[in-house]
Amino acid sequence: MSLHILDHQLWFPEPSEALPDGLLAVGGDLSVERLMLAYQSGIFPWFNEDEPPLWWCPNPRFVLFPEELHISKSMKQLLKCPPFTFRVNYAFSKVIQQCALIKRKEQNGTWIIPEILHAYQQLHGLGIAHSAECWQNEELVGGLYGIRLGKVFFGESMFSLQSNASKFAFIKYVQQLKNEGIKMIDCQVHTPHLESLGARMISRDAFLQKLKAEAY
Length: 216
Description:
By secondary structure, the protein is an alpha+beta fold. The chain folds into two domains: 4-60, 2-Layer Sandwich (Alpha-Beta Plaits), CATH 3.30.70.3550; 62-214, Aminopeptidase (3-Layer(aba) Sandwich). The chain has seven helices and eleven strands. It has helices at 32-40, 73-80, 92-101, 114-125, 165-179, 192-195, 204-214; strands at 4-6, 23-27, 44-45, 54-56, 61-64, 85-88, 129-136, 139-149, 152-160, 184-188, 200-202. The protein has a seven-stranded mixed β-sheet, sandwiched between helices. A four-stranded mixed β-sheet has the order 1-2-4-3, covered by helices on one side. It is globular. The model has no long low-confidence stretch (mean pLDDT 94).
């Protein structure tokens, strides 16, 4: 296997050609057209500020099927009398900016650089990128954003400024997406947080088959 170098031409190699860590290609740009092709192909961008665009398609893939959403007893109690208000696409730019600012133990900086901010704001303007938000006293305290294609939602990042805020937004959004016919939520790579909510690993082949059936 070798790493593919992208140029101005709009294409991606087959996901099966990815390196063992899931890295598939480097280079290209963050145009709407390339990002759309990436998601349709099961590929996502993830890179640091001092790097060229890096494109990934890991095996296995971490996903959540909405019917498998797990809600803990404590969260069930919180949902019965929530201290938060749930909104969708009310403040997309604020959500992605907060995702960029939040400090994460496993990362020294943020991968949500200005080019990413601009690209996903463009996708939001086209009705492709969406945000799910947790508000408290008219203050944005948590949320997430991602891409929606057909019956698949591709989660990108989340943040929380209050305990349980991002979890509240995630649960409410998964419930809404399920009611709207979404069949699969791509969580990309494993996190204990999302595993506790019901996400699990499936093979890349199974993910791509499901994507082909549901994303169009």
